[in-house]
Amino acid sequence: MAQIFAQDTFAVVDLETTGTQRENDNHIIQFGCAIIKNRKVVKTYSFMINPHREIPLSVQNLTGIHDEDVKNAKDFDYFAPKLTAILKDAVFVAHNVDFDFPFLNYELVQHGYEALTNRAIDTVELAKIAFPTLPSYKLSDLTSQLAIKHLNPHKADSDAYGTAILLLKIFERLEQLPQATLNTLSSLAQGLVRDTSWVITTIANNLRQKKRPLAKNYMQVRNIVLQKQNNQVDSSSDNNHHFPEEDEAKKQLFKRHLNYRKAQVALINHLHQFITDPNQRAMLVEAPNGTGKTLSYLFSYAYQLYSSRKLVIATPTKVLQEQILQHEIPQVLKITQLDLKAEVVKSSSHYIDLDGFVQSLFNGTPNKPTLVLQMQILVWLTETKTGDLDELQLTSYKAPLFVQISHPGDARVGSKFAEADFWNLARARQEAADILVTNHAYLANHYMDTIWGQNPYLVIDEAHRFTDNVITSRNDSLQFEALWGTLSHLRNLLYYADDGVQVQFSENVDLNFLLKKLNPEILELINQINNLQKILYNQRQNSINQTILANGNLELSFQGKGLFPKNSSFLEGLNKFVKQLEQVRDETNQILFYLYQNEDISGFQELLNEITDQIDRLDYYSEKSYQLTDLISSDSLDQEGFILMITSPEDPLSTNLHWLMLDVSDELTQIYSRFDHLLFVSATMTTNGNFKYIINRLALTDLHPETYIGKSTFNFKKHLEVLAVKDLPGPNSEEYDQVLQKIISQNLEHKDHVLVLMTNLEKIRELFTAIINEPALKDFEILAQGLSGSNNRIAKRFSIAKRAIILGADSFWEGIDFHNCKINVVIATKLPFESPDQPEVRLRQKSLEDQKLNVFQNDSLPRALIRFRQGMGRLIRGEKDHGQFVILDSRLWTKDYGKVFLDVIPVKVEQVKQKELKRKLDNYDQRRHKTNH
């Protein structure tokens, strides 16, 4: 049989234009095309086209095409006949075909030519389906990830060639899929953009004619093809090895695997001494970057693990979990020759529910993003061994589909997918594992889970963040406006919609009796919601802080006693509300049950699913209201902070309630009681050379923890240069903002990955707007927190891009991992003191004030120091890293606390003038090599 598509001609097109809105005097400035025949690129075209208008600076920066490049070129009218001849009888292909195809047609029609009617297909959607686990589907990223030579990104001819090779790789990948998967993809594909479905159906139909038995590594359940799972879990571990007490023995073990470093061995010895001392319960270790802390604690604990006793490691981020599981643990096992098994532990919602996924395929026509996601998952299921949805590398898992396909955590007995159920298989592997890696929040919420085993050891990695992560895991809210919306939608489904229950079943007397009874109950519930909102709104004057946010919302912060004084009627109103909510939920459930029992519901499944969704939402709000009742009724009300978010400041009925725990000492103590020999480790634990602040913060005083400060295994002077610009205006002046723009715009010519650390999201927005079209930064992808998507998306883009700048605050100082991306420069625009306008900061500080404690010395300064050190730590993560840390805050020299910041910097700080900065940044590598040699 001839190769599929061998007889087809594909014209892979890429256009560069003056702008994306074709009607707004935007025109094509370059046409690039690669012709595929017999599944090979046989010819390419590139035409520069005069648009008879200026090319915007942003387009010049992106494409490298300037006005002088096109001023002598022919205009579109000249090229139109050539383009139609090239494209005649070809399948039109583009990366985002819904831009290139209509834009080209618009230009043709404007110049008196007929619009193209070619079959048109999109490589963005096809790439997502064929390669579902790639982190990005931008063309430049795809060509990099798939090793496609692509010399000039954003030049139409190069982009067209890169897209053509991408299309051929997509063909190859789709042809490798099992037939059942192709068949299901083909049945879904009609909803893809333009004629993209033709590629999938053509491949499916052609291969259906061949006999293709299912490969041995696959299993098929219904129409889903999966990797075969090994259901047999070997729980035996041969751990007869003994810890090598002598350093010479360690040296022999490290040989061929790891450089023998005295500082690392000293840390290992201290950890071993702690772990084997029955009188010790907790230890704090400050281990600077380059100490090899992760390998050290794994090595030390590994020899103590035996049947039914596990090591639990909690980290703050997914990236760190993956690094420990995929790199650090395998290296330790290679060195020690121990037979230990390690597994990740995360919520069941991270795993796909195969029953729910199959059901989603029969739920009617989904929207485009959901359809593509379903097709991605079908292909991913032929690849995954774990069913962990994180493998899809999405930047958000908030799509409605995930509500249906996330695993609820039940046993799935009796399901057709029972044997292949990913969550149950994961639990079985976790039961048999010796090392379990989880995150801070999961540990905080599931510390009593039996999965940890008997008397387990515990390591809290990045421990300086643990308390804040526990607090965050306890934060919650009661969104009255959203509940009101749920009730309004429910009434519409029951009473008013053309396809609603009352209209569809108007003849059913019993059902209408139930409906008539429920309606006033819903209205009464809405009335009670409004009553609670008014009570809260009337406490405005008791707030300790109020802020008008950029979106116009009014944010008010309260201590518990301020929002709920002793004479408050809120608790009484809340109890009535809880009962009424239960009443509405029960009566809605009765209607749903009645319909399933007494009516032919074959044509109404979508309506009933909608009603079920609303009942689930009512359950959710009921749970939150019970939590709130417990909080207000408890003796520890003053350990809680409350925030009113009023979306329309003059309207009491736009009031919503959030709460956060200010003191989690009791919760931390309970968590610690579940584990043995607890190790808290981080690169930044001390302030002013001692552990006092972090011991209090982690509620460890009663455990009398051991403390140890590790030494770096490399010379920081050879890896880190710290520059402080001394002739800058004050960091809170308007003049400073202008100077900052100038520094970022003019000094980064020889850098690739730059992290600009700030302390204010509004200032980030202003700086981004000021520099986004700077010609000197045209080769950089500029990413800004709050503007360029989620923080995870920003970190992902930064790691993938060849050159990128991040403007970030908050978690970018310490909470975001950048994978293996080497950062050249970190610029600290200001010393990282928290803004007291943030409600959680003001509430925490007010609590300290009430205890008659100095807020600056006991909270603001220690936190800023740890964050400052973490920001500097973004640069040097290992022995091969080098970089510059630039400080632009003159308070380093003008304030008494400046010396405290200078004291935590591990190398001598070089003061430079603003005019000297560019030279220092430009020739850093040259100076470094000269010094090292």
UniProtKB/TrEMBL annotation:
Its EC number is 3.1.-.-. A motif (DEAH box) lies at residues 461-464. It is an enzyme of class 3 (hydrolase). It holds the Pfam family Helicase_C_2. The keyword Phosphoprotein does not apply. It comes from the Bacteria. One of its GO terms (biological process) is DNA replication proofreading. GO terms for molecular function: 3'-5' exonuclease activity; ATP binding; DNA binding; DNA-directed DNA polymerase activity; helicase activity; hydrolase activity, acting on acid anhydrides, in phosphorus-containing anhydrides. GO terms for cellular component: cytosol. The keyword ATP-binding applies. SMART domains: DEXDc, EXOIII, HELICc2. SUPFAM superfamilies: P-loop containing nucleoside triphosphate hydrolases, Ribonuclease H-like. Residues 250-543 form the Helicase ATP-binding domain. Keywords: ATP-binding, DNA replication, DNA-directed DNA polymerase, Exonuclease, Helicase, Hydrolase, Nuclease, Nucleotide-binding, Nucleotidyltransferase, Transferase. ATP binds at residues 287-294. Belongs to the helicase family. DinG subfamily. Type 2 sub-subfamily. 3'-5' exonuclease. This is 3'-5' exonuclease DinG. It comes from Lactobacillus xujianguonis.
